[in-house]
Design goal:
The chain has 142 residues and is an all-alpha fold. It contains two helices and no strands. This is DUF948 domain-containing protein.
Amino acid sequence: MPSTTLQEDFVSPGQIAALVAAGAFLLLVLLLAIPLIKLGRTLDEATIAIRKAHVNSDPIFSGANTTITHVNTQLERVDGITADARAVTGNVSALTSLFTATLGGPLVKAAALSWGLSKAVRARRKAADAPAGRHGRRRGRR
């Protein structure tokens, strides 16, 4: 039987500390591996989503480009209509000024004359239809 010494049968405190440190390091590596694996999966999903968005964005951009082209065409038409409306407004304004200058003054004078004549004729008829007074003269309204 081989003889063993007392020191060989026991583990030294330095070896125990090394074993505890190695176990703690292994536990730390295992605990950090799980979030790293989940983070890797999340990054893979994000990469796939970005690729899908890039592929699906081309039709959206081409549709938006077509829409903008149509809107620009309609805006050009509206600009033409607005310019025509501005020209018509200017023409109506000029025509109104011309009418007022040439016919407006004489028409107002003619209307005032006819109103005055009709009032005078009515007053004269009323005076003619009034009963005679004491002296044989008819009284009219003054």
